[in-house]
Amino acid sequence: MDLYKPFVSTAKNKKYSVYVMKEGKKKLIHFGQKGYQQYHDKLGHYSHLDHNDKKRKDLYYKRHGLTSDKSSAKFYSHKYLW
Question: How many whole angstroms from its chain centre is CA 21?
Fold first, then answer.
């Protein structure tokens, strides 16, 4: 697997996974709760759950805030699902 390239997760309740480097070690991060909608799935495997509602997207960001931490599930969820 390539670092920073998301793929469909094998975790029971997660949509995607990605390998990242954290403190010099490769770490697997799962993100995106299965069954929940998102604004727009940029990877396409769960695009049937897209709601494309700008107001909901804005409220999501208001609730969760922004992050630039590339070793967090939140970062990848924002990048690929919201």
Answer: 17
Closest CA to 43 of 73, 77, 74: 77
- For residue 58, the SS3 value is helix
Residue 71's SS3 state is coil
pLDDT digits (tens, 9 = 90+) for 18-58: 999 989 999 999 999 999 999 999 999 999 999 999 999 99
Domain locations in the chain? Answer: 7-80
Q: What share of the chain is helix, strand, coil (3-state, %, to 5)?
A: 25, 30, 45
